[in-house]
Amino acid sequence: MATRTPPKTVSRTSLKKMSTTSLLLPWLGLALILLIADQFTKVLILGYYKLGDATYITSFFNIVRVHNSGAAFSFLASASGWQRWFFTTIGVVAAVFIIWMLKSHPGQKLFSFALACILGGAIGNVVDRLLHGYVVDFLDFHYGNWHFPAFNIADAAISVGAVCLILDEIRRVRRSP
Length: 177
Description:
By secondary structure, the chain is α+β, with helices and mostly antiparallel strands. The protein contains 4 helices and 4 strands, in the order αββααββα. The protein has helices at residues 12-48, 82-104, 109-132, 153-175; strands at 54-58, 61-68, 135-143, 146-147. The chain has a 4-stranded antiparallel sheet with strand order 1-2-3-4. The radius of gyration is 21 Å and the shape is globular.
């Protein structure tokens, strides 16, 4: 007759840890998907376009290869080079903080979605700064002679995340008495 092994007891702490980890994984997965999409598109642009090359797509949209050594809207792009490490450091610190926030609030879906988008985008741009010393931008929207600054998938993910954070906060404030 076979003997049965007694069931393992699971402590509340390890159950909570498993629960938090299982809730965290989808958000880290989303961030990873955004990071891969961002880096894949940038590899294509670097492989097929020279700096300044552009392809007309529609009357309001072009694909163009642009290098941004600054931050959003080329902020500090003309600085002497220190901005590469400054923005890289900000990106790494932001990524660590976002992961901590995701661990603290994994069940808040819109909030976690927003943080995952920002995380994937921030890491995508940090990778560019580390590999190239600049961020590769290529999405160029325009109307007539007006051009919105070129951006990339990482920038779009960060923007979507920021909008979702604002929406989440508005929802939270409306729910509170």
